[in-house]
């Protein structure tokens, strides 16, 4: 179980971050760039980009239909957090879920493989 930080520990942490912000940002950027440059991660990165492209299409379809996440969820008979998860590209989306999503938005699902 993780213990809570004391008020002094929080103050010390904030002070450290404030004093070293540029250094911490540069380190984080270098680590991020190294991850993206590593060929071992290419497949994972490509998959993530595809998931985000699908998620963006789902979001656009819902917005075009003028639906809130809650209304779309009601139409799909799922929870609103499930709709949010779909629109963030999280998890594996089944064809059935995509079909329900499209139908609830008044759209037709079309898949292109290129």
CATH secondary-structure class of the domain at 56-114:
Mainly Alpha
Q: What is the H level of CATH, i.e. the homologous superfamily of the domain at 56-114?
A: lambda repressor-like DNA-binding domains
Query: What percentage of the residues does DSSP assign to strands (E)?
Result: under 5%
What structural class results from the helix and strand content?
mainly alpha
Major sheet summary line: none
Write the H/E string, N to C. HHHHHH
* CATH topology (fold) name of the domain at 56-114: 434 Repressor (Amino-terminal Domain)
Q: Distance between the terminal alpha carbons, to the nearest Å? A: 48 Å
Rounded to an integer in angstroms, the radius of gyration calculated over CA atoms is: 21 Å
Query: How many helical elements?
Result: 6
Instruction: Average the pLDDT over all residues and give the rounded result.
Output: 95
Give the overall shape.
Answer: extended
Beta strands, count: 0
DSSP helix fraction: 55-70%
Sequence stretches where pLDDT stays below 50 over 5 or more residues: none
CATH architecture label name of the domain at 56-114: Orthogonal Bundle
Detail the topology: elements first, then pairings.
Layout: H1 7-19, H2 21-37, H3 42-64, H4 69-76, H5 80-87, H6 95-104
Structural features, described:
The structure is a single chain. By secondary structure, the chain is mainly alpha-helical. It has a domain at 56-114: 434 Repressor (Amino-terminal Domain). It is 69% helix and 0% strand. The protein contains six helices and no strands. The protein has helices at 7-19, 21-37, 42-64, 69-76, 80-87, 95-104. Helix 4 packs across helix 5. The longest helix is centred in the middle third of the chain and has 23 residues, at 42-64. It is extended. The mean pLDDT is 95.
